[in-house]
Every structure is written in structure tokens, then in C-alpha cells.
């Protein structure tokens, strides 16, 4: 049965008639998150089509933080079409139909977490962290490939070992080049393994909760709650402050700070945890070009492998930086993912607190309309029926790799703004008139 | 933050000046006819209200220095526990709180918190929290607790005003309230973040006195009942309620002796005593101690005496003298018999250690009571620091009280005399003294100004009285006093200005430190914060097993339970002396001995505080002698003398005793310290130089085998060691 399935699979794929004339794959292994960029020049052998298939092994799918395909620097939509033989097939929909005997260049970008396995899994304080990376030495494609090379950029030139078949495999400093391989059949696989030193911080947010509160009086309050863990090789034995402070002896794979890019207009930035203020953060200068400001959140203690911490930070933003309105129709646009650099987020919840009385709004993430979100009503200051809260749960490895924007369109007119002052006026009037009543009439 | 800080400083400065001016203007309300209390003109009434509102605000804002300088954080040790209990209470409700068995403390014994606390503070705070939430003001419970003390300081100002007004007049009352707002002796325990029993208890104390004095003045059943309610509130907040329990009987007894027995007194005290005793019975922590404990006995005796006095007085007015004498004989026999029976039947217990210590300060001290710095005897400097000019003018106020000699004035005198005694025995009780000092100071200030500057004697104030006026005032005031009055005015102004300046300085510089964050000035002039405690506690909270047991000296128990959320062996509720002594013995003994104890007690981590790197003097080496003393009081094999060096000095340098250098405490504090080079005060850097003790340590190269370093905070202030478990057999 299995061979039959394979035959069917080959038949199905061979039918589409593309040929990868040239594939250049760049693996960036210098961080905790593995980013790969594959430039594919595809040649159409048959009739005109606008669909190109590519494959990801099923075991890798859960580790993908971001997957995108660009043609001429324009992102094109991709959809999962089928799962066969342990692989997941994606279809990239090209903008135009590619005629027979014509070529197109596609740029595949993929970011993966949890792909570098610390080995050995425990290290002592002063020791470096080594990681093991396993992949397919060929570019996995349902089409035949003319020629291909894979270039792996490592975090350091210290390499314990790497797979040397099929040749040629050449190491030059911190890069290893696999290939060039010619005439590769469809779906061909072969092991690629690199074991090298990588002391980059393996930051992972086990949970992240982002709360975005809209006040129609002109403020957007953002608060983000993190539970962070160092996901690298675990610390074995003692932690000595003396050695940690000694130059050259310190723990190379530990980290103390997180760098975040907050909006330039952010004010009142705070950084706290369960037991109070953490007074070790630095707010950098604004970066004019990207309209952001780098903030360094230095933790109370260094995080070694396996160590955890929890904290939250928040800031205020003038509403005009995030909200546009057209009559009673308001459109809130904020970044969807965490602003912290190189952080892998496992589980994210985004809560958008809208003003009181807002009907269920339309929510878009990265341009796509989202419908599976929860709606809650939460009472805070001067509320009668509670504010509308949208709760978006996202466990698809939200990370800063994802630059999508969250867009919430809701109805809120100027006259709805008057309720709060009216409540206040009534309350104070009642207070004063009752005082007057008691002192004049009864007193 | 800076802006807010500036604003606050300006505000406080303005208020200061305003207050000094106000105090200058106090002759206004003070000139009212003394016996027509409460008859103020509309304008005066408004002025009084306005002044009180300003004083409330002043009392509140002057206590915010700690929040402005540091952050909105709970201070020190006991407040941490109160904060944690408040969270527990607001999560579970009162019934569950009373049954709350805290497993994070006193491992493996645990603590039945509901029956070993005064829940008044937590209950009040959670009621406030609940009420705010009901109004949709979503105040964080931590912020409610942080700002609790300043708010109650404002309330205390109001009740001080009422008490002084009840016993004297409005002028003195406003003066007293103004003193109360900023007196350092009270502010020391009521700055923002200092969420402790005393913060609310002083309010409850003054409130009880106010209600009782009012009851005595009016002889009203209603006010007697209210005063017992106020007493009930006081009982639920602080162990210091015992002061009221004994002061009021003494007052009643004194009044009888002075021949000032009245029906008013009879009604107020009888009602107060009966209802108050019932209240005390309701609190699990006190329970039947209120009947059987000797510390409560005085109240019962005086209550009986008062009944007897009342009955005898009543009979005397209705019987002939022969019948009366016979009856008196019979009655006294019956009474003697009854008292004898009572003594035999009832198991009268002695007072507790702290109380006995108060009444007999020269007697033998229990080590653990004596080891607490706030239990030391107060010196003159303490009084000067906490009360300043009030210490001088209060006797003057007492003189005015004696001149007046009303029931209320006698009460104030008695309050003054007893509180003065107790505070001189125990520094902490300056707190009880502060209100009466303020009251007497207020009376003195107001009366003196009143005497010299009565606006009714307008002509006297002008150097040349207009012709046609009577000469009578001039005769009353001889010329020498006329000149003297300017001197008096000058003195008064100077002392008031000094009082405000000094109070502000003391409150802002001395009493506003949270003590878990340490702030110092770097040589470059910029401020440095040492946040090591929280660093280590947070590390514990995040990176140890949730049931990890941590051994440390008891001072850090409450902090660890609250901030690290981990189990401790001993904490600041020092209820089990033996357990504390065991920990002390463990730290004082050598590694093997200590390890055996630690394994028996299931210890996972050991925490020590070490200040040798940055020069933080209140560390564990500094407290080590007390640990040895406490351990020695239970385990005779621990001898204090073994830990002194060659010349009988307590030291850690090369002349230290081998016991000292071998002790676990020494080893854990100085582990690998010999490899650190620190600057001595006026010399080059040296290896292993302890900046607190100012010596090079005596033993540098040693290793620890039974424990391993788990964490050391960035300035070495907190050092945590993991206890190495024995490997499995086979």
C-alpha cells in the first residue's frame, strides 16, 4: 500500500510540470530562531499555470513561526492544500499565469523555532553552549531540481562536526556550503547535520498576554505580560556571582536583557513584576527611520539555561498614532506580535479593550478577517454595562517575525463620549445636593 | 515622576508655610469662650473645617515621601505579612481567613494564622478594597495597603482634634491636630507602605479615648456603648490594646480616690467594661485570656470596686448609720470570702513576657524579646528625635491641665504620665506617647498664645492704648510682661518653625525608607539603589520548586513568604522560641552538624544576608551574636564565649575564635570572599576585606561540601545555598 501511495503521490506532483532550474538556500543558524531564505528559479514545462507547490515535512510544521513567499518583492498568498506521506503541501498563488517555457523567481522565507537542540543538554556556568541542527540536505520539492546549493551561516566558527555527504561540503570559517548538487529528483531527502557552538540567548516566552486598552479620550494603553524562559542548555551545578562578574569567565549563553522596539511616541514606560518595580531598564533614543524607540528591559537576575522569570511592561500612546476614524467608524491599527527582538513566543493572548457600548467589531490580522475570538465585558472606571473586550488566542508561534498588523474596526460616535461626564456630573450633583439638604433642612 | 516629585515638594512647602501661618493664626479660634464649647460662628466653623481638611491633606501627603523617592511598595518585615494576609482575606472571606492555616511558615509546624493575629488591619483594608471595587474603582490591593497608613494618619488627626476639643477647647484642638499631622513619632510608623498594625491602632487608640472621655463628660449610655465599640476595634488591631485595658481602670480608681466619683463615671465605665470584655472574648487570639490573664485583671477588680462603691453610696444615703456599719461589716466579710473562692477556683495566669518586661524593665530579659531593636529602652535622643519641641512644651500643657482640673484633664494627665513611663522603657511605645504629647503641646501652645494675645484685650496689643479706655488691662499686665510677650511670641514661632522643618526632614530622610530597597549616594553624587533582596527573592520565586523549604534567620521569614512565595522555617512571628533556637544553633555549628540538622528539617535552601561587599551593616554576621544567644538559651552546648576572639572581641579577622571561623554562618557569608578585592576605607584594595567589620577576614580558603552556591545577588547582599542531598545507595 505504501509504495502505491508513493506512486500516486509522484504522479500527482509530476502532473504540475514545473522544473526548479536553480535553487539557492541560505540557512541562518546564528540565532536561536532559524531563518532560511530560498531563492527558487522555476521553469514552466507545460501549459500556463498560476500555482506553485512547495512541501514542508509534517514534523516541522508546528515549529514554523513564519512562512512567506515573495515574487518580485511582493508577498503572494499561500494555502495548505494537502497532507500526504508525512509532508504538508502548500500552494502559492502567483499573481499572473506563467506561460509555457517561461520562468519565475520565488523567494521562500521560513522562520523556525525549536530547531536547534542544545547538546550537551546541560552545561556549567562558564561553558559554552553547543547545538545540534538537523535538516534535509536537499531542497524538498515536488519538482525536479536542476542545480542547488545550501549555505549555512553559523553562530561561530567553532564546529564540532558536520555531515559531509554528499560531497562537496566545504567549511569556511562560520559558513558551511553544501553543494552544488545537480539533477536532484523530486522529494529527494538526505541528512544534513551541524553541531556547533551557539551562545546566542535562547529566549522563549512561554506565555504572553498583550492588553491594549482604547480610551476615546485620546489614549491607548498597552500592557504586556511575559513569562520568559532560557530555552538553551540548562545550567548544571552552582551559580557563582564572583565568576559571573569576572571578565572572560562569565556565562556566555545567559542573558539579562530584552530589547524591544516600542513606538516612538510611547510615554510613561514602566517595567514591573509581581513584587514591584524593576529599576533596571533603559530607554534609548528614538530611531527616526523606523519610528521606533529601543527600550532595554534588564531583568533582576541573569537568566541561565532553564531559568525563568515573569514581568510586565506597559506604556501609553497618543490615540492618533493608532486610530483613524471616519464618522462613527473607528479603525484601530496596532502591531499584532510582541515588540521584543528575537523572542520566540509560544502562546499569545491579545486583549483589546474597547470603549463601553461598542458592538462586536470586525477584526483583521494581517489583512485577513478573523472570526474566532471571544468577546467579554469588563467593568472598570465609570462603567455601567462594561467595556467590550476582544480576546484573541494565538498559539501559532507568534513571534516578532510576524510583522502583521491587528486591525479592529468598531463603531463609536462622539455622542457616546458624553456618558462618562454625565455620570460624574450626576454623582457630584447628588453628593452636593444631599449635603445641602442635610445641612439646611435637617441640620 | 520628577515632575510629580517637584509638585509634591512644592505642595508640601506651601503647606508648611501655610501651616506655620495657620498656627500663628490660631488665636482666632482659641479666643472663644472656654465653656461654650461648640458655639462657633458660621465663619469660624468654616475656618475650622477648612483647617482640618488641610491638615488631613498635610498628614496624608507628608507620608508620601517613600512612594515618591522609591515606589509604591510594602515596607520592611511585618507589613509584608499583613499584606499577604490581606490578600488572603480578600480572596477567601472572613470565615475562611479565621480558619486559615498557613503552610508557608514554620515548617514543619505551620501556623494557624486566623487565631494568632489581630485581624483588624487586614479586615479594614479589605473592606476598603471591596468598597472601592463596588464603586468600580479598580484599586490594586497593594496600593490600598500602601496608602492605608497615610489615610489613617489623616483620620487620627481628626480624632485628636475631637479628643482635645472634648477635653479642652477648639483652639488647643486645632493646634494638637496640627502637631499630630506631622509629629515624627507617629509618622515613623505610618508612612506610605508601612502597612502595620500600629498604622491603624493609634487611630483606634485615640478614638477610644475620645469616645470614653465624651462618655465621662456626658454620662451618656450611648457614648459609653460607642466607646466600647471603639475599644473593640482597637482590640482587633493591636496588642497594645492592653494599655487601654489597664489605663481606664487606673483612671477610674484614681477618680474615686480623688473624690471625683460621679454617676457619669459609673455609667461610662460599667458599660464600657462589660461590653469591652465581651468584645475581647470575640477575638480568637485573645479569647478567655480576657478573663483569666493577670494583664486583664485590673479592669475586673476596678469594675467590682466601682459597683461596690456605687452600692455602698446608695445604701448610705438610705440607711441609718448603725445599720450601715453593720451592713458594711457583713458585706466586707462576704466580699473577702468571694474573692478567696474566686482566686482558688479561677486559674489566674501570669502576664506574657513582653508585658512583664514592661512593668519590670530591670528583670531578666527573654533573649528573643530583647534582641529586637525596637524593644530597647528609649534614650533622651529618641524623644528629641521623635517629638522635638513637644518634649519641652508638653509639661507646660500638663500644667494647664492641672490648672483646669476637670475629669477630662485628669485623664489627659494620667495618659501622659503612664505613656511617658512606658515609652521610656520601650522605644516602640513612643507611638502611644505621641498623641498625648501633641494634645498637651497643642494645649500649651494655644493657651500661651491665648494668654498673651487675646484679641479681646486689643488695647494691650497696641503699644499706646487710646485715651479713654480703661486702665484695667494694663494693671493686669505689668510692663515687664508686656515686653516679655514678644519674646514669647518669638520663641513660639521659632519652635513651631523648627518643629515643622525637623519633622519634614525626619519623615523624608529617616522614616521613609522601605528597607527592602537600599538607597545610597555614590561618590559621584548620583543615587544608587541596592535592590538585592527582591532580586534574590524573585529568583527563589521563579527558579525553585514551589514546595522548596528555605532556612534563614527569622527576620526574613515574612519577606520570603510574601515575595518569594516559598516555605520558611521561622519567621517574624516569633511564637516558637525552640524552633528559632534550632535554626540559630544550626547556623552557629560546623558544617557536618549543621547538615544533620538541615536534613532533619528537610531544608532545601539556606539564605544568608551579607553586607561585607557594599558595607551594609545590618547583615547576618552583625546579628550573629543574637542568634548564638537565642540558641544558647535552649541548647546549652552553644556558648556565647566560644565565639569571641582572642581579646574577648567579637570579630571575624585572624584573631577570631576557631568556632567562629568554622561556623556555617561564617562559611556561607564568606564563601569565596577571599577572592574578592574590595576597597578599604583609606587604603588600597585588599582581598577579603570586609567593609562592614573593617577587617580582612581570618579564613579565606575553604570549600563547602554539604551545600553549594545556588545564587548570589548582584551586590552579594543575599547569598543562597542549595543543600546537597545524599546520593542514592547502591
Topology, element by element:
The complex is a heterodimer of chains A (443) and B (730).
Chain A: H1 2-14, E1 18-29, E2 34-44, E3 49-57, H2 58-61, E4 64-71, E5 74-76, E6 78-84, E7 87-98, E8 103-112, E9 116-118, E10 122-123, E11 130-136, E12 144-154, E13 159-162, E14 169-172, E15 175-184, E16 191-197, E17 203-215, E18 219-230, E19 234-235, H3 241-245, E20 255-263, E21 267-273, E22 276-277, E23 281-287, E24 292-303, E25 308-318, E26 323-326, E27 329-335, E28 344-345, E29 348-356, E30 362-365, E31 368-370, E32 374-378, E33 387-394, E34 405-411, H4 419-442
Parallel strand pairs in A: 1-12, 10-19, 17-28, 17-29
Antiparallel strand pairs in A: 1-2, 2-8, 3-7, 4-5, 4-8, 6-7, 9-11, 11-16, 12-15, 13-16, 14-15, 17-18, 18-25, 20-24, 21-22, 21-25, 23-24, 26-27, 27-34, 29-33, 30-31, 30-34, 32-33
Chain B: H1 2-24, H2 27-30, H3 42-61, H4 65-69, H5 78-92, H6 94-98, E1 101-102, E2 111-112, H7 120-134, H8 141-146, H9 148-167, H10 170-182, H11 184-187, H12 197-218, H13 221-237, H14 241-257, H15 263-282, H16 289-292, H17 297-318, H18 321-345, H19 353-359, H20 367-370, H21 380-387, H22 390-404, H23 407-425, H24 430-452, H25 458-461, H26 472-476, H27 479-510, E3 518-521, E4 527-530, H28 532-543, E5 549-551, H29 557-564, E6 567-568, H30 577-588, H31 591-600, E7 605-609, H32 620-634, H33 658-662, H34 664-670, E8 677-679, E9 685-687, E10 689-690, E11 695-696, E12 707-712, E13 718-723
Parallel strand pairs in B: 5-6, 5-7
Antiparallel strand pairs in B: 1-2, 3-4, 7-13, 8-9, 10-11, 12-13
